[in-house]
Design goal:
- By secondary structure, this protein is mainly beta.
- It is built from 5 helices and 34 strands.
- Strands 4, 5, 6, 7, 8, 9, 12, 13, 18 and 21 form a 10-stranded mixed sheet that branches.
- The N terminus is likely disordered.
């Protein structure tokens, strides 16, 4: 799957144009895209996507991409002139192109050395302009992060390398008392070796060598070492009676025949990191609170591109991929004793690059947008890094900061536990994947939360929380309880006490917040509870005190009223009967 980043873009030319004695190149063209077009089994549509460093110089309308494009190949070609492309996964087309194009390298003869413009050249007495140049390491992906670039390779792969040289045969001396005649007897590549830490992994004797390796790990430096040998024939004749006026020998010639030789070793190296996924691990978790809920934690063990859950669901990492040519091979140089010629190279390796395009992983699924995704990412953790600055010619905008996730916690309520037994982790190098069996990590246990309001008055409230396992009643000793804006950890007895600054009106709501199940040694589920505020009844002492105060206040009044009624003979209130007197 490819992603179109933008329909408008401008960039500058990377690499040199043909110079010196040969080509005059159109200033509006770019040497980024090979002029010989698609080949080697790479169709035109894919071929256009391999050269992200080309010049985006066209401002095309939507009609140019729709009605005016007569074929998918033309559509892709027009897009490639306006933008660069990102792929979700490492593509195979880069390797397919390199393997085919590599065969088009033509070395020179013994009088000419042919090399890419940026090759490191070395000389000896007779061997000149010698080079070993790594054309490609594949499969490989160059990861760009911050100010660094790291070449990731598979544990098994191949190195494509070129080598060439020329032999400088001294000029003959055909006059004078000492005369010399030089000729080249033989010159050859004694060996082309692939070495890692001094150990030979493969060898060849060709100007075009495909060198294989396997079983690599860690951070090996791949070195191609080329041994070159040459042997000359040197005939030296010395006259004992030389006649200078006639440039002839009046005496006799003494002849000395030697075979001088020359040896030279040239190298080229790539620092790499092996993208091994065989250390990937994972665990699976079920939930007491929901039989249909399943969780998993995956540790890829290396830089990864996707975690495949099933045929339709996968987790995408930070990385997207683009392809670009190696600018060091834009120009091919031919050197002889008398001069140097440069020309646009017909041998053009491509390289796959990975750039961080999102800060964290996300879920990709084939389900319709209106349907809830079948998988959620609970958490992803790892090391934080800065995004890379890219060359101006690359129309790709990475994120400024991202987390290189070394672990991912997932949960689903629609993917069954049986379907979650295994996941497949894919690396950032093409062909690198590892199926991981998820070990049973246990169950997230259901919990109960019980809230009790111990005190509630105008100054606030005191709430006691007790957390227990639902199945056993045993206290839960991890996590915390939250009530309002207050939070407190549970103790060894599964209890916590919280002091609220304001008295709640009628009820208190609380939540037990368990430790993240993907980090906890014993996994618990969240629980909630609600407790009523008890009525504010007066205490017994307060009631007695109220009764006494009331009695003391109202007894004198009652006695005064009764006395007045008595004095009036009961005519005031009728409380006394005068007939009884």
């Amino acid at each position: 799957m490819l992603v179109v980043l933008a329909l408008l873009g401008t960039s500058t030319l990377l690499g040199g144009l043909a110079s010196t004695t040969t080509l005059a190149v159109d200033s509006n063209s770019s040497t980024a895209v090979p002029t010989d077009g698609s080949d080697h089994g790479v169709n035109e549509s894919r071929f256009q996507l391999l050269w992200s460093e080309d010049i985006e110089q066209e401002n095309l309308s939507s009609d140019d991409f729709d009605a005016n494009a007569s074929s998918s190949e033309e559509f892709t070609q027009r897009l490639s002139r306006s933008t660069d492309y990102l792929f979700d996964n490492p593509i195979e087309d880069v390797e397919q192109w390199n393997s085919g194009d590599f065969g088009e390298y033509d070395a020179g003869d013994t009088a000419m050395s042919v090399h890419p413009e940026l090759a490191d050249l070395d000389d000896e007495r007779y061997i000149k302009d010698a080079h070993a140049s790594i054309f490609a390491v594949q499969p490989s992906t160059v990861l760009q992060s911050g100010t660094e670039s790291t070449t990731y390779i598979a544990p098994k792969g191949e190195v494509l390398a070129t080598a060439d040289y020329r032999v400088a045969v001294p000029d003959d001396r055909e006059s004078g008392p000492v005369r010399e005649k030089w000729s080249l007897e033989e010159a050859e590549l004694d060996g082309v070796e692939l070495r890692v830490d001094g150990q030979q992994l493969d060898s060849n004797t060709s100007h075009q060598s495909t060198l294989e390796y396997s079983g690599l790990s860690g951070d090996p430096t791949l070195t191609v070492a080329v041994d070159i040998a040459a042997q000359l024939r040197h005939e030296r004749r010395t006259c004992d009676e030389y006649n200078q006026s006639t440039d002839s020998c009046d005496g006799s010639w003494e002849t000395e025949l030697t075979h001088p030789s020359d040896q030279l070793t040239v190298t080229d190296s790539r620092n790499t990191t092996v993208n091994r996924l065989d250390t990937a691990t994972g665990t699976q978790t079920t939930f007491e609170t929901d039989d249909e809920q399943t969780g998993a934690v995956v540790h890829p063990g290396a830089v990864w591109s996707t975690i495949e859950i099933d045929d339709v669901t996968r987790v995408r990492g930070n990385w997207r991929f683009y392809a670009a040519g190696d600018t060091g091979w834009h120009t091919m140089v031919s050197r002889t004793e008398t001069g140097t010629t440069r020309a646009n190279s017909t041998v053009r390796p491509a390289q796959l690059y990975a750039v961080p395009m999102q800060a964290e992983p996300d879920v990709s699924s084939n389900v319709p947008d209106a349907v809830e995704p079948p998988l959620e990412i609970e958490d992803a953790w790892g090391s934080e890094h800065a995004g890379p600055p890219l060359a101006e010619a690359i129309d790709v905008t990475p994120v400024d900061q991202y987390v290189n996730s070394s672990s991912v916690a997932l949960q689903s309520e629609s993917i069954t536990a049986d379907s979650f037994d295994t996941v497949t982790v894919h690396g950032i190098v093409r062909g690198q994947s590892q199926t991981v069996s998820l070990a049973d990590d246990g169950i997230v246990r259901e919990t109960n939360l019980n809230l009790t309001v111990l005190k509630a008055d105008s100054s606030g409230a005191v709430v006691e929380a007790t957390v227990t396992e639902n199945a056993t009643g045993e206290p839960v000793t991890t996590g915390r309880v939250e009530v309002g804006n207050q939070s407190a950890p549970v103790n060894a007895s599964g209890m916590a006490q919280l002091h609220l600054e304001e008295r709640p009106s009628l009820v208190v709501d609380g939540t037990y917040v368990a430790e993240d199940w993907w980090r906890a040694e014993t996994m618990y589920a969240t629980a909630e509870d609600r407790s009523k505020i008890p009525p504010k009844y007066p205490k017994f002492a307060q009631l007695v005190q109220l009764a006494l105060v009331t009695l003391l206040w109202f007894l004198p009044v009652a006695l005064a009223v009764y006395g007045f009624d008595y004095l009036t003979g009961g005519t005031f209130l009728g409380l006394t009967d005068t007939h009884d007197r």
